[in-house]
């Protein structure tokens, strides 16, 4: 597994500078996109990505996350998400191994600007060698739903979401 991955990109629209449409801002360069992933060990991962506008001289988006896991199979993921003029939120998800075949899982996202919950979900997963089943409850923007799924490994799943 690689320790570090870094990506930096920007594009240029060759048709943009010659356009005579005044509704276009004559901005041929795309935002600069950067991404870095660090995996210093088997149990920790860090990731960040951002878009920076060379015209507005400001960030259009930025996301930071950390993932933790242990030898037993428990996982914790935390992420800060920002998208200019659209959203700013905190997201977390966890999976806890209850036994060899049973897992409990949950996720939660909160809008930091409005101070409201975006999504809350909790459930249980049972795994077997060739199939699995999960039951979950999700509340997303006051849309509450229960789901029961049976998944056949390599074939897909059936159930109700």
Low-pLDDT stretches: none
Spatial arrangement of strands, main beta sheet: 1-2-3-4-5-6-7-8-9-10-11
Tell me the number of strands. Answer: 11
- Anisotropy-based shape: globular
What percentage of the residues does DSSP assign to strands (E)? over 45%
Q: pLDDT average, as an integer? A: 90
CA gyration radius, whole angstroms: 21 Å
Largest β sheet strand count, sense and barrel closure: 11 strands, antiparallel
Instruction: Give the N-terminus to C-terminus distance in angstroms.
Output: 35 Å
Structural class estimated from helices and strands:
mainly beta
Number of helices, where a helix is a run of at least 4 consecutive DSSP H or I residues? 0
Helix content: under 10%
Short recap of the structure:
The chain has an 11-stranded antiparallel β-sheet with strand order 1-2-3-4-5-6-7-8-9-10-11, with no helix packed on it. It has strands spanning 4-9, 32-41, 44-53, 58-69, 75-83, 87-97, 102-111, 116-127, 131-140, 143-152, 156-160. The chain is an all-beta fold.
Supply the key terms.
161 residues; mainly beta; 11-stranded antiparallel beta sheet; globular
How do the helices and strands line up, and which of them pair or pack?
Blueprint (H helix, E strand, L loop, with lengths): L3 E6 L22 E10 L2 E10 L4 E12 L5 E9 L3 E11 L4 E10 L4 E12 L3 E10 L2 E10 L3 E5 L1
Antiparallel strand pairs: 1-2, 2-3, 3-4, 4-5, 5-6, 6-7, 7-8, 8-9, 9-10, 10-11
What does this molecule look like?
The protein has 161 residues and is mainly β. The chain has no helices and eleven strands. It has an eleven-stranded antiparallel β-sheet with strand order 1-2-3-4-5-6-7-8-9-10-11, with no helix packed on it. The radius of gyration is 21 Å and the shape is globular. 1% of the residues are buried. The mean pLDDT is 90.
């Amino acid at each position: 597994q690689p320790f570090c991955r870094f990506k930096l990109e920007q594009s240029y629209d060759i048709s943009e500078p010659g356009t005579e449409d005044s509704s276009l801002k004559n901005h041929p360069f795309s935002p600069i996109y950067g991404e870095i992933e660090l995996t210093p060990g088997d149990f920790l991962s860090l990731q960040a990505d951002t878009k920076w506008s060379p015209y507005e001289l400001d960030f259009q988006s930025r996301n930071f996350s950390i993932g933790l896991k242990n030898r037993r199979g428990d996982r914790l993921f935390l992420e800060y998400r920002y998208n200019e003029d659209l959203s700013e939120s905190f997201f977390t998800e966890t999976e806890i191994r209850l036994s060899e075949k049973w897992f409990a899982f949950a996720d939660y996202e909160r809008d930091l600007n409005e101070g409201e919950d975006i999504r809350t979900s909790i459930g249980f997963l049972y795994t077997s060698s060739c199939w699995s089943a999960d039951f979950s409850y999700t509340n997303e923007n006051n849309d509450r739903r229960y789901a029961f799924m049976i998944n056949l490994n390599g074939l897909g799943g059936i159930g109700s979401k």
